[in-house]
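Quick log. Single chain, no ligands specified.
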Amino acid sequence: MRSIEQRFREAVESELARHPDRHAEYHRDFAAGRYREGLKALEYLQGRYPDAFRARPKILDVGGGNGGFLLPFAERTQFRCFWIDHQRSDVLEQVIRQADTRVSRVVGDAGALPFASASIDVVLCIETIEHVNARALGREIARVLRPGGICYLTTPSRFRFLLRRDPHYGIPGLLLLPDGLQRAVFHRLRPGEPYEVEHLFWSVYGIMSALPGLRLAEVTSSNWAGPLRRFDWDWVVAQKR
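-> predicted structure:
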């Protein structure tokens, strides 16, 4: 019997076969790696924040994409898992159909989450906040989290890519420019293509300013220790007061 991870990888391959492009190898590694990233995060968070996973916790993946990050959580039968994005994911639908995995899916606006206040135990926000109105999303995350609930958040550090190719489009030096000028330069270089980045944060302080009512519980960096982690991070955990 094939595991959910195997089914997920097969679904990614099927999607790439239907929509081939010159970056297929990158997309294959990136998309398929989401499951392993989610499993690693789950194991860490359960050990570090056990109160957030008590009883039958509700897990919400905001901007869930292909669903790979959420699937390890969905494998835990005691978890109630929810996924929301602005469009459906054929990859996730295929895995759910084949593996009979229970994930409630919603196509909707991350700035107006269709969940009751204080109803969610864990929010996953993986490479999403930079693509939307951060303050609108942050207010909704703070609203739906129960007191003591956590938000596990990843988003590219602007400092990390300041002198490199930007992480979304591979344009050198793009992040040296103000947000509005980034968009203008992108459209000049790639006319007709959509620019789907709103803002990359300079610091964890900026991220936390978009999450009212949450406190910074943890920030990790593979490059730095001490205060510098707040300017070049890997992931952030914020907790509802």
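The chain has a mean pLDDT of 93.
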